[in-house]
């Protein structure tokens, strides 16, 4: 019996079914499995395929599917590492192409195996079969298949919540949360204090999308890479950049800051870890030839990068929600109150706007005004963008950036910026404009650029955590934390979740963070390695406060 038929014979009548494959190959087996799922009237509501794949950048890659109900995750990692970082219950596993590997994978597979998990085995050696048997897998007479029969108790999965949620905030974070939940059949009520979408930090004319590089491939680099690659695929499902979404995938050129930065960049490029379509290092003559402007220390070229108007991304995401979305715009400030097993969102006059057991705070810097989020150490950093007449500037083939950025012309306007200020003034500042223009002049090597430009642009306030990483997950109850030492033991506000702290990367962080939260609510395989999931957990600040002996200061930045 083929692997596809074997897996399909066990999924009938299930709510969800997860298949793990150690060899993705050309993808033919996964495609056949999805086709079998489509054709089966007794199929599970959701099919998840998790497979090891070669030729991808390191990490987990969630590949959006046109077919609702199907999830595909490709893992570019060694088998042992992939299993240790995977968060899911495996119902069926196909083991192929692992001859000669050490037997430690057996323990990892057993940890993830569902009570009645099945294996299809191709080419296992005796030591590998023995290791699997020691973990509770029972083989058939031909040693070609096995089932999990361990009597060790399985920790129960959390109960699935009612598929109704309130999302507070209609910027990138909130609109992505609404879309990702609606895609799973949730009814979502979106509450926004302004009269429309993207009126605060998400309201700029242009946001840049590009990856982050580092020599040590640290957590921010890994997270940004995963989010960037997911966003590129996700936006295509919404109609695409430059089509349904206003913007251009024109590429981003990041100039080296100085000779030292250039040397570090050359070392990264020499490691060979990045293909050219993802990140290409250009020496000064090459960079200058492509840009048409001086690039004295060389530059990175991110060919898949570009810019998009965040508001148009928000609009596309809400359109995709269809009739499962209810919106309340222009409600002003709101408060949250517990009402039995649910939360009430109340207007300033005390009237109840919405009620649900699941609430997602996605209001950026303003979210700390809610009592339940007030102790999160989020800062509101002011950013002023300057709008310039594009006819007064060089015509750019790419988005150009270094300490500052400049976008190609759109509607006759080029955007330059943005400042990072502790100032709380929402009005345009002459000093901030002067700072933007000074950086612009260094960026394009033009001492006269922006001369006599009128004061024009936009001010927004970024929500920033001390470690510059987002907050994704159930919010901690600081008052009940006690002597907690582990993330999993931190008391939480039941049903209250955050998508916060997106800093300057909301455009690319929003889709993956929303996908992560939605997957967690649904007990699905998570789209990120466990180490990255933990790094984003809002409860990390409870543990850090204990380790440093300090309570989390309100709105601290360091």
Automatic annotation (TrEMBL):
The keyword Isomerase does not apply. GO terms for biological process: methylation. Its EC number is 2.1.1.61. Keywords: Cytoplasm, FAD, Flavoprotein, Methyltransferase, Multifunctional enzyme, Oxidoreductase, S-adenosyl-L-methionine, Transferase, tRNA processing. One of its GO terms (molecular function) is tRNA (5-methylaminomethyl-2-thiouridylate)(34)-methyltransferase activity. NCBIfam families: MnmC_Cterm (TIGR03197). This is FAD-dependent 5-carboxymethylaminomethyl-2-thiouridine(34) oxidoreductase MnmC. It comes from Massilia niabensis. The gene is mnmC.
């Amino acid at each position: 019996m083929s692997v596809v038929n074997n897996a399909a014979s066990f999924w009938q009548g299930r709510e969800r079914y997860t298949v793990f494959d150690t060899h993705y190959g050309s993808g033919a087996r996964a495609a056949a499995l999805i086709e079998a799922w489509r054709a089966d009237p007794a199929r599970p509501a959701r099919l998840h395929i998790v497979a090891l794949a070669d030729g991808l950048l390191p990490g987990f890659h969630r590949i959006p599917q046109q077919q609702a109900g199907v999830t595909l995750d490709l893992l570019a990692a060694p088998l042992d590492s992939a299993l240790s970082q995977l968060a899911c219950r495996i119902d069926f596993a196909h083991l192929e192409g692992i001859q000669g590997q050490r037997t430690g994978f057996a323990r990892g597979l057993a940890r993830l195996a569902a009570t009645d998990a099945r294996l299809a085995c191709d080419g296992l050696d005796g030591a590998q079969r023995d290791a699997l048997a020691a973990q509770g897998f029972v083989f058939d007479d031909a040693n070609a298949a096995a089932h999990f029969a361990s009597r060790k108790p399985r920790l129960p999965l959390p109960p699935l919540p009612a598929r109704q949620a309130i999302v507070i905030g209609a910027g990138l974070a909130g609109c992505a949360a609404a879309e990702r939940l609606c895609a799973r059949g949730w009814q979502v009520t979106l509450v926004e204090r302004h009269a429309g979408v993207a009126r605060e930090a998400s309201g700029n004319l242009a946001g840049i999308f590009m990856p982050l590089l580092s020599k040590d491939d640290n957590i921010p680099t890994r997270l940004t890479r995963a989010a960037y690659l997911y966003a590129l695929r996700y936006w295509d499902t919404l109609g695409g950049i430059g089509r349904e979404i206003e913007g251009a995938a024109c590429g981003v050129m990041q100039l080296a800051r100085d000779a030292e930065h250039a040397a570090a960049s050359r070392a990264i490029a020499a490691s060979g870890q990045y293909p050219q379509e993802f990140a290409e290092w250009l020496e000064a003559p090459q960079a200058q030839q492509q840009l048409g402007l001086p690039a004295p220390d060389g530059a990175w070229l991110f060919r898949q990068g570009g810019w998009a108007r965040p508001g148009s991304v928000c609009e596309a995401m809400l359109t995709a929600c269809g009739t499962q979305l209810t919106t309340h715009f222009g409600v002003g400030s709101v408060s949250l109150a517990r009402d039995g097993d649910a939360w009430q969102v109340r207007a300033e006059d005390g009237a109840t706007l919405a009620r649900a057991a699941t609430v997602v705070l996605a209001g950026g810097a303003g979210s700390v005004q809610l009592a339940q989020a007030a102790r999160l150490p989020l800062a509101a950093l002011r950013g002023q963008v300057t709008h310039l007449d594009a006819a007064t500037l060089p015509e750019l083939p790419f988005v150009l950036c270094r300490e500052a950025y400049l976008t190609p012309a759109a509607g006759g306007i080029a955007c330059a910026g943005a400042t990072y200020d502790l100032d709380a003034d929402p009005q345009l500042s002459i000093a901030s404009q002067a700072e933007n223009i000074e950086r612009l002049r260094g960026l394009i090597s033009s001492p006269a650029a922006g001369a006599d430009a009128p004061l024009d642009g936009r001010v927004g306030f970024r929500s920033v955590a001390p470690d510059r990483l987002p907050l994704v997950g159930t919010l901690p109850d600081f008052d009940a934390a006690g002597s907690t030492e582990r993330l999993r033991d931190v008391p939480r506000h039941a049903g209250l979740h955050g998508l916060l702290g997106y800093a300057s990367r909301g455009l690319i962080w929003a889709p993956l963070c929303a996908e992560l939260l939605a997957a967690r609510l649904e007990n699905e395989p998570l789209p990120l390695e466990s180490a990255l999931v933990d790094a984003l957990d809002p409860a990390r600040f409870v543990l850090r406060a204990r380790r440093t002996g300090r309570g989390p200061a309100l709105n601290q930045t360091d």
